[in-house]
Amino acid sequence: MNPSKNDGSNGSNNGDRGFESALGRLLGIGVLASTACLALGLALSLSRPAGGAQPALLTAGLIVLMATPIARVAVSAFTYTRRHDWLFASLTGIVLLELLASVAAALGAR
Fold first, then answer.
1. Residue 34 and which of 27, 40, 58, 95 are 20 to 30 A apart at CA?
2. How far apart are CA 63 and CA 46, in angstroms?
């Protein structure tokens, strides 16, 4: 009997692959959405320099680009909590709070 087959690691490895795959999809979607907003906003700015939807699209693209890593940390914290991995849930929760405090401080400085 092969002890490596019965140590319970196979299930956690599959879960880790699914977790990493989900995070990869999240990051990919965020980058694609950001790129689409930025590209459309830039194209509109070059074709019609005055006003319109360009500033909103460019701002939305930048916000989505900055929010994507925050969303990754939030999903990680949720996943670790669901798995009862309290050490990593705590650490990612602290990182998430620091990121959100940074956003709040930046918005408060406006």
1. 95
2. 21
Q: What is the pLDDT of residues 34-91, one digit of tens each?
A: 999 999 999 998 888 777 889 999 999 999 999 999 999 999 999 999 999 999 999 9
pLDDT digits (tens, 9 = 90+) for 45-61: 888 877 788 999 999 99
Number of C-alpha atoms within 13 angstroms, CB side, residue 70?
13
Neighbouring C-beta atoms of residue 15, cutoff 10 Å: 12
37 contacts 60 by C-beta, under 8 angstroms: yes
How many Å apart are CA 67 and CA 49, to the nearest integer?
A: 27
DSSP 49: -
**pTM (two decimals):** 0.69
- Rounded CA-CA distance 94/59 in Å is 27
List all residues 6 or more positions away from 51 whose beta carbon is below 8 Å from its beta carbon: none
State the Cα–Cα distance between residues 65 and 50, nearest whole angstrom.
25
